[in-house]
Amino acid sequence: MSNNPSLDDIKSKIDIISLAESYGFEFEKPRGIRYRARVNLLRDEKTSSIDFFTDSQKYYDRGAGTGGDCIDLIQHMENISQAEAINK
Q: Are 70 and 14 within 8 A, CB to CB?
């Protein structure tokens, strides 16, 4: 049996809000489980349409119709592969 943590174990230990803040995201006042970013750092837009959710530890960009978890955010912010994001 391996002592290596599963991908789900890794994801469960990462707070999506703290991770996003480490990349420079700033948030409006939270509304329950939803944190709206003041500026969408993933793409240029006039009004930010990216939300982060503390219950699912995921984000969703309504304007682009994309989102994901902490691994996906690392991939997009650093333009790296999933394997590289997992290693980070």
A: yes
Tokens found for residue 47: 């009004």
User: Rounded CA gap, 54 and 11, in Å?
Assistant: 13
Q: What is the pLDDT of residues 7-39, one digit of tens each?
A: 888 888 899 999 999 999 999 999 999 999 999
Q: Tell me the pairing of strands 34-36 and 58-61.
A: unpaired
**Count of CB atoms situated within 10 Å of the CB of 19:** 19
pLDDT at 75: 96
**Alpha carbon distance, N-terminus to C-terminus of the chain:** 24
Spatial distance between the Cα atoms of 10 and 49, rounded to a whole number of angstroms? 27
The C-alpha angle with vertex 32 and arms to 39 and 25, in degrees rounded to 5, equals: 20
Nearest Cα to Cα of residue 74 among 25, 32, 23:
23
Percent of the chain that is helix, strand, coil (3-state, to 5): 30, 20, 50
